[in-house]
Amino acid sequence: MSLPTEIPVNSDSSDKFQASFIESWKRALVERINPYDGSNDNFIKTFVPSRARCNFRGHNIKNAFADWTPKAGQEVESYDVLLNGLDTLVKPFPEDKRLSFFRSHSHEMKFPFAAFESNHHTSNPNLAALLPGVVSPPDAANPTWADFSMIMEAKASAADDPFTSSSLESCEEVFRLAVSARSLMHAHGLLATFALGIYGDIARIARFDHACAVVSKPFSLKKLEDLKLLQRFFWRFVNPCHIVPFIGCDPTVRKLNSDDEEWLKEHLIMINFPGVDELVLHEARRAEVYDADDDEPKAYIMFKALNVNGCLFSRATTVWLGIRDNRSARENDDASMDDSDVTMDDDETEDDVSQAGTEKAVVRIIKDAWRPLLRCPETDFYDLLDASISPEERVGLPTVLAGGDLGEREVRQWEKALYGQPTPSNEVDHQSRLSAQRTADLDDALASAPQSMLVLGQSTSTALPPHRPMQQTFSWRLTRGDDQWHQERSHMRFVVDTVGRSLTHFHSTRELVEAMLDAIRGHKLATEKAGVLHRDISVGNVLIVDKPEEGPQSRGFIHDFDYSSYAEGVEDDFPTNPPNNSTDIDYEQIANAPDSGDDDDAQANVKDRIGTYYFIAVQLLRRAGEAHKIHHDLESFYWALLWVILRHTEHMHPLKHLASADIFKCCDDRLAAGQKIGWLGDSYVLGIKGNPPLTALLDKYRRLVARSLFRKEENKLTYESVEKLFIAALDDNRWPENDASKTFMMSDLRTNTSTVQGQPLRKPLAASVPSKKKKAGPQPAVRSRVKRRCKAIEGAPSRPAKRHRRTAAL
């Protein structure tokens, strides 16, 4: 879970930090910009899928850019000429498909989610294409990213082409494109987006998704054949295979219309949801959630973003509050149907179904993310938890109600259409799956196939889905070969039952401790019952249950299992080798490939670093290749608790609000570990004003972690020892009342201090600690299915030398 943080940087070292940050941007861009080796015609066929033919004979475009002769540093003065040329290319398009172009260079564009705009870079692309059929933004003086469909950069000469150089200046230009692409994708919930770079008389098309960018070869703005190619690109862009406004739009997502907004407000008011009038509904959207291969989706209106990972080449996780939209289901019901006629799916609750009958909404969590193919789907871990832990004993863990892997679903539909049936889950081999070689002969056929043959979800084996899956990226495989499958990402969307509140918004310190205790108990259940080790305990991944009396018995829970691993030795039938389809995959080669590395989210992002890095156990910071074990997560719980106390309670540390910045360091593993060691080794007792139970708990927890670290007594840092501390503290009757969290403010005296936004450092997959005794596990069918899909990945070696690379995940 993203946790935006601000890290104070001493002014004397700010230049050094800035230089290292820019160098990290450069490394990240070089690794993720893939030049397309094929012709530009094939580039458009492959990455701009459309069934619409472009034939505008009699329309003269030969001299569209004849007058485009900009001078270096004075390009703005020639923008009108450039816009006229672009208008010439799209003039023959029907009005509802015609693109209009906008001078956006003078507008500082903020991140598209207002609640998170201060955490991310602004940008001002030179030019932008508006939505098809729109001639001007609703508010031309204050345009938003939602007004644009594509961005453009224009420079004076071919020497300004940033894709021909790895210089710092070129890196900064590509970075501008990437930041704009990131914002555009978040504004619309896009699967991919395009940027047009114009450099004097030449131009390039760049396609961005969450795995990488693919860049076309340069083409001329003064040659007729190349102008026809650019015109064809625009035409295909506004004529996608799906019924969506333009290429890259997700057909399972749309913005809310006025009817949606009215219905949403009505149902939120009925359940007394706070702040309905303050909701930013132009950010909200309606999304479809699919279970496995089901053809019928469940619709949810996602009305408030709780957390947004603003990185482009990453999981790009967005967490929403949402409610089930059952309007279409009700329209299909007979008017005389009573409540007894309402049926319930296996994964639905009575509250969810009641929305169709009694109109009562139930607020849920919807998570949208792009998982690396190299990692198990997070829903697999939840399936394992469900199969292993009975509802009666379930504490501190949420439940997935619906949803799954949209990318996997779409690829399986392709396989069914091409081969008669999808590949069995235990035989999936991403290296050969829909490989470029196996499907190359289909490219031309798909472009000319009748529309009836190209409908996603048709049941006949001869039905071909739209041109190549887009819910799962294929950009690495199509540009650098099928052996780069591990760089790809797959789109996931699922619904979680429990709605939580951040640890930093506790209503009382007792509630904070109760939530932490239940989260620790949930961690214990996951490890001992299901063999799942979380491995990413942080402030953002532990939540307080808003209304425990109305829902689960937990006061808090852990979530975000997408970086989890399996604790070895939990089950005797746990496979020791990869599934048969994976035995030929050289995981060591993948792990040491120059472009593979750890997951993007695993690398510290120098621009948008979130909180996970601060909670990493000391041993994991100090020792490259250290196996992640249970006691490391239990130590992370301590650092998360300390972080919240230092920032949101009235404590008596002499540095006051600067204490957290003194103890929690970033960007340097040695420094970060050293500060934590110094804190653990100090006999100083941090007092919390008027709160003896919390003071005692924090001190005893510190000493327990210190013994584990200094005396090598990892066996003393156990679930039982930690639970004992929390229970003793909660049994103390001296807890204060009405001591809700305090707002954390950075010092007003930092006149010469800069801040750096954060992105979490995730750990590479490592061997987990074996369980000491065999535990009752899930049903064999569920266990074997999940393990077959993930065991090979868990065995992939990490790269200790590059384990904490400071690479920017844009």
From TrEMBL:
<dbReference type="GO" id="GO:0004672">
    <property type="term" value="F:protein kinase activity"/>
</dbReference>
<feature type="region of interest" description="Disordered">
    <location>
        <begin position="752"/>
        <end position="810"/>
    </location>
</feature>
<feature type="compositionally biased region" description="Acidic residues">
    <location>
        <begin position="334"/>
        <end position="353"/>
    </location>
</feature>
<dbReference type="GO" id="GO:0005524">
    <property type="term" value="F:ATP binding"/>
</dbReference>
<protein>
    <recommendedName>
        <fullName>Protein kinase domain-containing protein</fullName>
    </recommendedName>
</protein>
<feature type="region of interest" description="Disordered">
    <location>
        <begin position="330"/>
        <end position="356"/>
    </location>
</feature>
<dbReference type="InterPro" id="IPR000719">
    <property type="entry name" value="Prot_kinase_dom"/>
</dbReference>
<dbReference type="InterPro" id="IPR011009">
    <property type="entry name" value="Kinase-like_dom_sf"/>
</dbReference>
<dbReference type="Pfam" id="PF17667">
    <property type="entry name" value="Pkinase_fungal"/>
</dbReference>
<feature type="domain" description="Protein kinase">
    <location>
        <begin position="188"/>
        <end position="727"/>
    </location>
</feature>
<feature type="compositionally biased region" description="Basic residues">
    <location>
        <begin position="800"/>
        <end position="810"/>
    </location>
</feature>
<dbReference type="InterPro" id="IPR008266">
    <property type="entry name" value="Tyr_kinase_AS"/>
</dbReference>
<dbReference type="InterPro" id="IPR040976">
    <property type="entry name" value="Pkinase_fungal"/>
</dbReference>
